[in-house]
Amino acid sequence: MEKIIVGLSGGVDSSVAAYLLKQEGYRVEGMFMQNWHDTTGLLAGDCPWEDDLLVARLVAHKLDIPLHFTDLSGPYYERVVNYMFREYQAGRTPNPDVLCNREIKFDLFIREAEKQGAGTVATGHYCRKETIGKNGKTIHRLLAGTDPNKDQSYFLCQLSQEQLSKVIFPLGHMKKPEVRKLAGSMKLATAFKKDSQGICFVGKVDLPTFLQQKLKAREGTVIEIPAGLPQYRERTTGQCRQWAEKGDFHFITRPWTYDPGMGTPVGSHRGAHFFTIGQRKGLNIGGKEQALFVIGTDVEHNLLYVGQGQDHPGLYRRGLFIPAGDEHWVRPDLALSPGEQAPYLVRIRYRQPLQQATLHKTAEGIHILFDQPQRGITPGQFAAWYREDELVGSGVIQ
């Protein structure tokens, strides 16, 4: 009987995953990971890890399975939290959940499970895995979950073939209401517990307060950029096509850039590194015909650029660039070589509907050109590309 360790987080998804595996005849054990101690910036009412551990113990007792405990808070801080601080300091917006999965849940957690004699782990993620043979090699396909409202494949976009070879996703074919109903019928302690929100293992935080542990507040100027800048007109659909045909993808994929002379000072802020592209809240500037949105940040000079209205052209781009060192192929056998291109479905954030795009591989990296302009392309975030329902690769947006 194969031994499997399930990452019991104190939530309903991992609880049901453990139950299903036990029903299938596996020798199931649970493991609770403590990855965070500090409460700086946590919003009132957010559950501390002690509460989650208590619930995980209740679930393990109900399912009659052992529960192991491991403290990974040191590596989590080094690999995930410090990464967050570095990215915000550099003016980028990181995705700690993606890094948490790559570095903690599907790396250190797997190692801890192996110490307990388990070669396979399971989580409550809503995604699927399919194993196929190709040219005499075993290939693991990462597939979207059946529930379109809960598909979490995007958060696993940085996993490797080795990591996928050691994991099972029991909930991949289920929908969330089914999971809740099953947990209720089993009278599991997690049946009606709310889903966790916020930063992976940290919780829901007031981000500026959290970041001020390392990043100092510094007053700077907010500059409003008009919608009629010449650079916006330069990147029309026809011109984009012409530049793409010439192979000059940088014209299309580079971010918008600004300088103070392009706009009008309209207020102040407490640190450009606390803001991200597309952000509306926290500007505290009124008196405008339409709401202001962040369209650019300059952390070096501590300047924040904003534009009026959700349709401001500074919020939209036709393409993005991923440097070669930041591209990752879940399916290395499908990796593009310099000079090649291929159509893919792409998303640039969790739950964004998949967008039609073409990947162009050059020696410098991957240029992604979308069929339609995309709102809020943000440096530091991950772009993930799919072929139908399979996540094939991903990379950090420059």
In short:
The protein is α/β, with parallel strands linked by helices.
Characterize the structure shown.
There is one protein chain. With 398 residues, this protein is an alpha/beta fold. It has 2 domains: 3-204, 3-Layer(aba) Sandwich (Rossmann fold); 220-396, Elongation Factor Tu (Ef-tu), domain 3 (Beta Barrel). The chain is built from 10 helices and 18 strands. The strands form 3 sheets. Strands 5, 6, 12, 13, 14, 15, 16, 17 and 18 form a 9-stranded antiparallel beta sheet that branches. Strands 3-2-1-4-7 form a 5-stranded parallel beta sheet, sandwiched between helices. Strand 5 and strand 6 form a beta hairpin. Helix 1 packs across helix 6 (176-185) and helix 3 packs antiparallel against helix 4. The relative contact order is 0.13.
* Count of distinct strands: 18
CATH fold-level name of the largest domain: Rossmann fold
What is the straight-line distance between the termini? 47 Å
What's the SSE pattern? EHEHEHHEEEHEHHEHHHEEEEEEEEEE
Question: Low-confidence runs (pLDDT<50, min 5 residues)?
Answer: none
Structural class by helix and strand composition: alpha/beta
Assigned CATH superfamily of the largest domain: HUPs
Query: Helix count, per DSSP?
Result: 10
- From the coordinates shown, what is the CATH architecture of the largest domain? 3-Layer(aba) Sandwich
Provide mean pLDDT, rounded.
91
> What overall geometry do the principal axes of the alpha carbons give?
globular
As for the number of domains, it is: 2
Instruction: Please outline the major beta sheet.
Output: 9 strands, antiparallel
- Rg, please? 23 Å
Strand content: 25-35%
What is the helix content?
25-40%
CATH class of the largest domain: Alpha Beta
